[in-house]
Amino acid sequence: MSAAAHLSWFARHEFRLAWREWLAMMTGGRRRRNRAVIGLLIFAAVLHLPAYAVVGRFADLQLPLDPGSLIVLTTTIFLAWALMLSQAIESVTRVFYARADLDLIMSSPVKLTNIFSVRIAAIALSVTSMALLLSTPFIDVLAIYGGPRWLAGFGVVIAIGLSAAAVAIAITVLLFRLIGPSKTRLVAQIVSAIIGAGFVIALQVAAILSYGTLSRFAVLTSDTATRIAPNPDSLVWWPARAALGDLEAMLLLLAFGLILLGSVMAAFAPRFADTIVSVAANPTSVTRGRGKSFRSGSRPQALRRKEFLLLRRDPWLMSQSLMQLLYLVPPALMLWRSFSDSAIAIVLITPVIVMAAGQLSGGLAWLTISGEDAAELVATAPLDPSRVIRAKIEVVLIVIGVLFAPLVIALGFASLLQATVTAIAILIATASAAAIQLWFRVQAKRTQFRRRQTSSRVATFAEAFCSIGWAATATLALTIPIGAIVTGIMTLLVLAGTWKISPKRA
Amino acid sequence: MTSQPSALAVRGLTKRFDRPAVDALDLTVRVGEFYALLGPNGAGKTTTLRMVAGLLRPDAGSVSILGIDALADPVAAKQVMAWVSDEPMIYDKLTPLEYLEFVAGLWGIDPKVSEASAHDLLISLGLEAHLHERCEGFSKGMRQKVALAGALVHEPRLIILDEPLTGLDALSARHVKGLLQARVRAGCTVIMTTHILEVAERMADRIGVIAAGKLVAEGTLAELRQQNGRTDTSLEDMFIALVETEAAAA
Fold this sequence. Notes:
The complex is a heterodimer. By secondary structure, chain A is mainly alpha-helical.
């Protein structure tokens, strides 16, 4: 086989793997390709409605734009790029550590630089494809109502997808060089989480500190932002101009993305092999545990201690928790500001806190209930299964309590009623998330945490709906109590419906 | 005079998946015995032992462990038993000592007793240098040794092992075999499945051969030879002959 044939063969292999992995994520590992494709098409079609609600009114935007609009559009594109970068860092890290086929590839008689160039291209393609999938409804709506010039948006998405993948590869390889393979995994996950959420949160923080509002647009459209923005001919506005249909800007942007990815391939593909060898040689550093004496206590206490220790040492959870906690920074700041001017906007903190608690407890409940690495050990221990489950749920409640109690206490100084309602809602949202995880539990390894959503789409959506439902109920309880009864009943119905179709009941 | 109960007494044990995996199996293992359960892949060895350990609910039959009805009172049965599978059940983020502390806590062992016992066990298995290292960097053999130490730290009276020597190097395998033999000498009962017939031949007091969910032969090596009609044959030859006969009969 010639080198070119070899490369195209390997590219086909990579794309087949990427397709199957994506399909497995969509179907939860069950082979339902047709259903997944139909489901995806329906989802994409339905997505056009919220897309219309969000961007429909901007369809008539034309060049030249006023500075405020240029800033908002450019910032939105940068945010999309940051999210793609976050996803790409995660993908690259996975390539390094998921060594299932790397031993085979590296022991085969092929030029590794070429092989890893294909793998880099596959990462770029998968990141860009996902972005295209999500952006298509928005671009469609803009093109339908504002003309075909908006189709240039696809070019912008491809360009930023390629550049995000290129930067992600450079960041990850550099992290390997700087801090070594054992720390890179954790640091890359945290960097990825911060990049994904940090930008939006930073804008919100700036908005709260300057204008007392959670809206990030307040900063972007402010006089200060307009004053310090570059002049209209600056390169900074090229992505915005390209998105608005400036073909020259779009082609230049695409060329930039391709050149950047090509340069990264040329620079880093030869080092990929070295990096992977260093990971293989030193998959994990020797981490020493505590050298304390054995502690006494009841059997459930032993279980709880183990769960706390594992949660504390779980890098996946750390990055996920960091994300949740980062989202809590803006409402916490808002709260702090509200002490002085008793703004009505303080009510908005409750849904944010309740949703964060619901989402975090869903993840924690999965880790403690489903993510049991020694399931058979626990199952063969002389302990009633109901006591095992109770101990694990207690861990979730304690962690949520410790994390959210300071916020609720602080809220109590501003409004005792709001603090009480928020605390009750946190408790109910946590209990709901834990119950859903219990009903849909599938024994898995903790390392599969990233894919916990794939085991059951129903559980994932139910968890999200319940978090939103309880957040809305708590907010309405503080503002329109009769509305709280309606949303509360609706959320309970979602929960009951979820229980009804859960495998544990069947 | 009251007779001592068997370490394990299984009667009419049945489990069906797509086909019968275990078919009305009767099995008795005496106290203080080293019992090797042999059989070809898919014969029902692991399913049988998983039902005994309480990991799988049988469709029919009874399981008695040291006189305790394991189906009626699983917690009491589990208190005196340990289960070790071929896939080590340990936590990557715990050190061997932390793991043993957790297991001892689950079995409600006094920490003063379990701490000393944990140190001794891990040292006897050659893990002295790794007592405070997290298990995430351990080899398969080291992980299996930690899992075995976990099974022994609560002083079980019945130890059930499913292919415990898989992936162990010669030295580690010798450590494990030595530890198990010492336990048997101390009065503990060991039931083990293995594909390494030489291990069964050397270590087991009695050997049971299972095929298609049924016990097709059982006894000491000498008894099995007698049943086979030859005194000079190896366990491997007898095992292959038994399995082929069963396959032909099926």
